[in-house]
Amino acid sequence: MLKSTGAAVAATVLAGCSGGGDGDGDSGGDSGGDSGGDETTTSGDGGGSGGGSSGNTVVVSPDGGLNFDPEELTVSVGDTVTWDFQAPTHNVAAWPEMHDQISIPEGAEGFGTMEQGGDAFATVDEGTTFEHTFETAGEYTYVCTPHAASGMVGTIVVEE
User: Fold this and answer.
1) First to last CA, the chain
2) Is this structure's pTM higher than 0.85?
3) Residue 62 within a domain
């Protein structure tokens, strides 16, 4: 039930941030099996036609900083969160195998701007949005993998 929209899913790797990763192997193809929620990545061409179902938005790199705003967001089961990328060279990763700071509730499916098992350092363009619908209650700690060591870590708390 992974849904990807737009060419932005073929996450553009930008030199200077990730040490020159090449972005191979993480095109919009979907390997299936992700039943934890719907995901959408949309290019920043002003196409606000995504599923903006609520005001649950996390700004990625506001004012060019290495942070998420808000750092912690509380939502309900079934809510969709939108990450709004205001700078290039960032991503969202909540696949526990990609970084030791990532944690998700038992039984929950991971999510990210890259495919599971894909390039953890693949980033998306400025202006891109990424959405994930949370179907399992609990605390989700996610990172921007190129900047996790610099503290670019966020949390989504999902309540019943």
Assistant:
1) 21
2) no
3) yes
